[in-house]
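Recall that a protein's primary structure is simply its ordered list of amino acids. Everything else, from secondary elements to tertiary packing, is in principle encoded there. The following example makes that idea concrete.
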Amino acid sequence: MNNILIGVSGGISAYKVPSLIRLLIKDDYNVKVIVTEDALKFVTKETLEIISGNRVYFKMFDNVSVTSPKHIELVGWADCLLIVPATYNTIGKLAGGIANNLLSLVASAMDNNKLILAPSMNVNMWENKILQSNLNKLKKMGVNIIEPDSGFLACKDTGKGRLPDIEIIHATIKRVLNTEKRFENIQYIVTAGGTEEDIDKVRVISNRSSGRMGIEIAKQLYFKGADVLIIHGNVSVGIPIYLKSVYVKSAEMMLEVINKNIGNNTIIIMAAAISDFKIKNAGKEKYHKKELRHIEFIENIDVIKNIKRDNILKIVGFALENGMDRKSAIEKLKRKNIDTIILNDVSSIGSEHTKIEIIKRKDNNIIEFEGTKQEIAKLILDHI
């Protein structure tokens, strides 16, 4: 269980902090809060204490111990310090080495790699060259900066300066807390969802894939600090806004985008449900009902077989079979010349819970597991 220290400075978006704390506690984090005096004009100490379940700190010399000063005690307790909102004033203090309140004092003693800033301010303040210089200085020192959103601001201006989405802040905390190094210097491409092939202008061939498995794998990779891109067809599960993603319609488009994005040391995880067939002469206009009786199916392009293998470290495929047909999955593993295949049953479509077998070509080792797709995503990453 990780300990998250949240520092709240005096900006209007401080009212969003309780929602973030609730999300972190739901995710089994311990949360303590430091506030500045100005922050208490936007959110109450009592609210933060009730939601966090811990005392809120704001006085610099409150209950000072000679053997354990409060700011050092808090630094020792915390696995990371998130300042949200990080105001123009607070960012300036950190960049200038000023520690004249409890929050800036704690930040001064914190490892920069464990310090996260979520800026929020007026667009003109955000674009101020002094602020940008201060942010660049902090970035070079290893401080994690979450870019603010653009849109309609509390001051009624429009532009960049809105507090980053709570979901992005939550995901960044997980990423910063990650201690695994094995996902560094590798690019991951994950495919998800169902592709579709045109029958005519209004009809398509597709499938019922939700995309949940691929999206969950991409999320877990992001949390582990990986460079991950998700290439997806139709999905019925939302793709988190912190993930880099590209939508593709057809199998050919998916292959094109995969090959275009292969970098050095790439691992590809093919969780998408790609249409096996397409129409020989897809209509550019709507077919009449009678004409549909004469459409001809032809085999679709095999995406995995046509992936450029240069710089590919590994390709992981999926086999969706009736009744966990292991023999069919192993045959697919060999035929497509991939490193690992994940066997699952058709009953997993649209479900959060499923059973899988991880089958590796190298050692013929088979790992069986049943659980949620989040649990399975973690297991897959442990074994590839």
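The two ends are 26 Å apart (CA to CA). Residues 342 and 358 are 5 Å apart (CA to CA).
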